[in-house]
Design goal:
The protein is mostly helical and 110 residues long. Helix content is 55%, strand content 11%. It has four helices and two strands; from the N terminus they run H-H-H-E-E-H. The chain has a two-stranded antiparallel sheet.
């Protein structure tokens, strides 16, 4: 998956449609550099980059926008903190790394 394909995939996701294109490009660029640090199989590098770019966008943009929710009650309306925002891309990225052997502590005795 090329960076252009990753950017297009992110733009098509409903949660990311409202994000400025330059912000998406920056996240993809940053994610590309970070993922290079992991010696991953060629066939998953694009997907890992997509997941990490999505995580960066969540942290930089979506988390701030969706942090507070307006709630209508019988007596009026109030705003509350919504701690239920979850970063599915980050969870999936960590799962992918775990499948590749990262995060496992193994001790060998000889």
């Amino acid at each position: 998956m090329t960076n252009d394909e990753i950017t297009t995939r992110i733009k098509l996701a409903p949660d990311y449609k409202s994000i400025d294109v330059s912000e998406i490009d920056n996240a993809v660029s940053d994610a590309t550099e970070l993922v290079k640090a992991y010696p991953l199989k060629d066939e998953i590098i694009g997907y890992a980059t997509y997941l990490y770019a999505s995580h960066l966008l969540f942290m930089r943009v979506l988390k701030r926008k969706g942090r507070f929710k307006s709630v209508k009650a019988e007596n009026g309306e109030y705003t509350k903190f919504d701690g239920a925002n979850s970063d599915d891309a980050w969870d999936e990225f960590k799962r992918l790394l775990k499948e590749q052997g990262y995060g496992r502590n193994v001790i060998h005795f000889y």
